[in-house]
Structures are given as structure tokens and as C-alpha cells.
Amino acid sequence: MLAVIDYGVFLGLVGAHTILAAIMTRFFRLRLDTQAGWVGYSLGLSPILLFISTLGVTGGLGLGPNLGSPLVVFAVLIGLPVALGMTIDLLYVAQPEDVELPQR
Fold it and tell me: What is the dihedral of CA 80, 58, 8, 93, to 10 degrees?
């Protein structure tokens, strides 16, 4: 029973991280006035926030399964959601040029 809960928390954390990475990528694409600056911010700041979240949930609360290696945890809980989040934003959301932003 505990293993089912651990894997449920794990899948929920991967899903939450993917949504968070997509939202952060979208925010950087809309707010930055550069051609590729959003890529640097998305690849630089998103993993930091996801790392803090991973430490809080899997370390502090002790939830999630034992994946065997810190590298696997980093790849699955940080790398995969960043890649999926950026892909979702790039392929399935309207381009920033098509979005109306309020005037300052």
C-alpha cells in the first residue's frame, strides 16, 4: 500500500513540475524582449525552482520512491519536466506575438 502512495506522489510531482515549467517558460517568453533570452532563463531558473520543490517533497517530507541514484532523480524530476514544459509551451500555446499585453 505504501508503494502505491509513493508512486502516486512521484507521478503527481512529475506532473506538477511539468505544469510549473510550462508556466515559467510562458512567463519568460511573454515578458522578455529578446530573441533567445527566454531560453536562458527557462533553462537556468526553472531547474532551480524544481530542485527546491524536489528537496522539499522528497527530502523534507520523505515522500516518493527510492530511485536508486541522485542522477536518476535529477533527470526524472527536473530534466524531464523542464523538457516537457518547454515543449508544451512551444508547440501547444499561442506565440507571444499573438498575445495582447496591457500597455504600461
Answer: -30
